[in-house]
Amino acid sequence: MTKEKQIILPLILLFSIISLRISAQPESVKQAARAVFTLTTFKEDGSILSSSHGVFINDQGEAISPWAPFIGAH
């Protein structure tokens, strides 16, 4: 085996293991991603006032979000 192959093969193996670890997400991360939503508020004329994100805190549909997008919303 040449010296280049001795260096390249372990590097390929290392990068493939790293990529597999990155793509595999635990179930808790997937659940957290489903709990996030986009909040859009509108002006009285129907145009978009603000956009933000919020998080559902239970399975009854209750959520929390920043107050700032609601200021001046209709």
Would you kindly provide a written description of the structure presented here, covering whatever features stand out?
The protein is of the alpha+beta class and 74 residues long. Helix content is 41%, strand content 24%. The longest helix has 21 residues, at 3-23. It is elongated.
List the helices and strands and how they pair.
Blueprint: H1 3-23, H2 27-35, E1 36-42, E2 48-56, E3 63-64
Antiparallel strand pairs: 1-2, 2-3
In short:
This protein is of the alpha+beta class.
Instruction: Please state the average pLDDT score.
Output: 82
Distance between the termini: 72 Å
Total beta strands: 3
Helix content: 40-55%
Encode the helix/strand succession as letters. HHEEE
Number of helices: 2
Summarize the main sheet.
Answer: 3 strands, antiparallel
